[in-house]
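cron nightly-structures :: item 1 of 1
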Amino acid sequence: MLGLAVGLLIYADSGLYDVLGYRLGHRLPLAPAVLFLYLFTEPMLGLLPLIILLFPDGRLPSPRWRWVLRCYLIAAVSDVLAQVLMSVYAIAWHRTQVDADGQLMLASQRYGVVFVPAALIFFALWVLAVGYQVVSWRRSAGEARQQRNWLMAGGAAALVSFIAGGLIGAAGGVWQVVGGWPWPESPHCPSAWAWPS
């Protein structure tokens, strides 16, 4: 869980760095390394369903879950490999155009064939893991029930944050405010920059 938290912080910060470096044209040091880091840490969100499924003792609920875990890990490794290949290609061939969130625009073109199935598998495991924990919560008592109460509270907070982030992203990009820098009143503002009406 600590690795997931650190990875998400790196992901968010490197996305902002990519917007500044590749979308707004600022010459920033280590921009290719940060772009690679962004794409490498993006799949770390895939650890979340595993954390939910393995809660609280770190073991699978039963041996029947092994095939689900294997399919999930194959999809996760494929996603990471596609992210790495995409970043190497973009940097080597100077195809580093990014959107308002810092994501390479190549992601929606060539590599969508990997990312769409991986996202579907990710959400399927998320639903299965949450469903398992809800059923376990209903059957549990005492300390095990209290542990799952905390898990459900954290899960509800994460879901609200996820939905809010999606709504913000749909409204024009998480980094739209940063993407608007320099402000139109600034004397350093390029003449081509237009403030949205």
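cron nightly-structures :: done
Confidence is low (pLDDT under 50) at residues 177-197.
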